[in-house]
Structure formats: C-alpha cells, structure tokens
Amino acid sequence: MGKCLLQDFHQYAGYLVFCLCLALWLIASSSFRRKLVVDHTAGVYRFYIHGHLRHQGPLHQIYIRMRAQKSGQGRLLYKLILHGYKIEEQQMSGFCEKYEVLEILGRRMASKLNINYFDYQDVSTRHLVNQWPKRHTIAEEEAAPV
Fold it and tell me: Which of 2, 4, 91, 102 is most buried, judged by most C-beta within 10 A?
C-alpha cells in the first residue's frame, strides 16, 4: 500500500512542478500592469507599464475603433478596441453580432473621454472625430528650438 502511494507521488511530481512554475509565471507577468491616463486639462495621454511612463502624446493619437471579423458561418462579428500611437491594442468588448449596440457604446465612450471613434470601415460617415492634430504655422516652426 505504501509503495503504491510513493509511485503515485513520483508519477505526479512533474505535473506539480509544472503547475508551480506556471503559477509563478502568471503572478510575475500580471505584475506588469498597463495604465492609460487621459489628461483633458493638458490635452495629453500618458501610457504607463509597471508604473513607468512609456509614452506621452496628444489626445488625437489615441482612439476607439470598431473591429469586424467574419465568423465560420459568414456573419460579421464586431468588437471595440482602444488603440493609439505607442500603446498596445486593448480589447474593450468581446465579439458581438449587434453592430448598433456596440457603435452606440463606442461613440458614447469616445465622446465622454473626448477621444476619436472610428468605424470598422476605413471610409465611413460614422466616424466621430473629437481631436484634430494642431496645425503649426511657418513662424511657429522657425521659432521652435531645434
């Protein structure tokens, strides 16, 4: 009876070590949290990884976008993503067949955050552009330090 228990322990020891290593890896990888701060007073966003500032830029460089993907049955499934310059794409919703509901949600979030919203089609009348790049005059460019 005791010999059988010892054989079972040796049989599952590799599995136990694998599970412990996997748990440690999950804990370590989740410690690198991403944080996006939208500062409306300064008109900039800040992207942090593990508490360190990775990028800061103007608000027109981040946006919410609807993504479309065909399912196996040929239907379009939609999801919302948050993306921008030098930030990682973040999925804001799962796949859904209800385009109108996700569009209302995406446009509402974009207007509340005062960032841009883009439809899944590149050319669309449903885009919502809240932020435009600043236009620089020639005099401003000449006066700017190099």
Answer: 102
Q: Which residues of the chain have pLDDT under 70?
A: 1-10, 28-32, 132, 136-146
pLDDT at residue 53, rounded to an integer? 92
**Residue tagged 């992207």 (tokens):** 47
pTM: 0.66
Torsions phi, psi of 135, nearest 5?
Answer: -95, 130
Alpha helices (H) along 57-146: 99-113, 138-143
- First vs last C-alpha separation in the chain: 81
Q: Which residues pair with 36 in a beta bridge?
A: 47
Write down the domain spans for the chain.
1-31, 58-118
56-63: which pairs have CB atoms within 8 A and are 24 or more residues apart? 57/84, 57/85, 57/86, 58/131, 58/133, 58/134, 59/114, 59/115, 59/131, 60/116, 60/131, 60/132, 60/133, 61/85, 62/36, 62/38, 62/87, 62/115, 62/116, 63/110, 63/115, 63/116, 63/117, 63/118
